[in-house]
Amino acid sequence: MNNSNRLRIAIQKGGRLSKDCQDLLKQLGVKLNLREQRLIAHSTNMPIDVLRVRDDDIPGLVMDGVCDLGIVGENVLVEVQAERMRQGVPSEVTKLSKLDFGYCRLALAWPQELGARDKSWFEGKRIATTYPEILTQWLKREGINASTVMLTGSVEVAPRAGLSDAICDLVSTGATLEANGLIQGETILESNACLIQNKDLQDADKLALINKLMPRLRGVRQAKE
Ligand code: ATP
Ligand code: ZN
């Protein structure tokens, strides 16, 4: 558990969510000294420490209570949740708010030269993905027997490299798929960044601070509408 009396928030270190997370903290009035390339940044005006880590580590840090809050894509949250549930380790969090950045969808795609395909085409195929749990659950729901090939990066080159028949990857504009000669198919998950909290958090001071920040967050979100 996080025994520090400072509220600990996990955000992505260098990636698509980093800038939006830093901007959001600033809009909430949290002053940070993020100049150094350090793991922890201490707020200079509130009892808050910001931990900067890989996005994949954020749900686990919050579920295990190492961090009190975290900002992460729902795609990563759902994947880690399913994996941890299977392993029988704590997988619940309190979802405080959906955020207005990090929108993407997890979609199936296959080589353009195959032309239009429906779901039944995936029967017996190999699908490369970074999200094997979400994909496996979807395949099960759809009654499709296909195998998954786990890749943590460069998923879009897997069919060309002969590693898989198709892919299931994150898409925002579709430009990367097109550049790799792939056709986008069914979306299996829509995702935004979200703010999560450790579900067992009981420290009264930390809860009071969160209660102070939440109306500000709602204000920031409304101002954007
Ligand atoms: P890390 O080094 O932290 O593991 P990463 O390479 O896994 O980084 P990023 O590519 O920085 O992750 O993406 C972080 C998150 O941004 C994704 O998990 C997703 O929620 C969101 N996102 C939004 N648009 C896209 C997109 N087009 N492709 C990938 N992720 C996107
Ligand atoms: Zn990642």
UniProtKB/TrEMBL annotation:
Task: Summarize the activity regulation.
Answer: Feedback inhibited by histidine.
**Predominant location category:** cytoplasm
Task: List each copy of the ATP phosphoribosyltransferase catalytic domain by range.
Answer: 54-218
Q: What is its EC number?
A: 2.4.2.17
Q: Which reaction does it catalyse?
A: 1-(5-phospho-beta-D-ribosyl)-ATP + diphosphate = 5-phospho-alpha-D-ribose 1-diphosphate + ATP
Q: In which pathway does it act?
A: Amino-acid biosynthesis; L-histidine biosynthesis; L-histidine from 5-phospho-alpha-D-ribose 1-diphosphate: step 1/9
Q: What class of enzyme is it?
A: transferase
Report the subcellular localization: Cytoplasm
Which cofactors does this protein require?
Mg(2+)
UniProt keyword annotation of Transport present: no
On whether Transmembrane helix is a keyword of this UniProt record, the answer is: no
Which keywords annotate this record?
A: Amino-acid biosynthesis, ATP-binding, Cytoplasm, Glycosyltransferase, Histidine biosynthesis, Magnesium, Metal-binding, Nucleotide-binding, Transferase
What would you give as a GO molecular function for this chain, any one? glycosyltransferase activity
**Of which family is this protein a member?**
Belongs to the ATP phosphoribosyltransferase family. Long subfamily.
Q: What does this protein do?
A: Catalyzes the condensation of ATP and 5-phosphoribose 1-diphosphate to form N'-(5'-phosphoribosyl)-ATP (PR-ATP). Has a crucial role in the pathway because the rate of histidine biosynthesis seems to be controlled primarily by regulation of HisG enzymatic activity.
What is the name attached to this protein's record? ATP phosphoribosyltransferase
List the source organism.
Answer: Pseudoalteromonas aliena SW19
Lineage, highest ranks first: Bacteria, Pseudomonadati, Pseudomonadota, Gammaproteobacteria, Alteromonadales
Please name the gene that encodes this protein. hisG
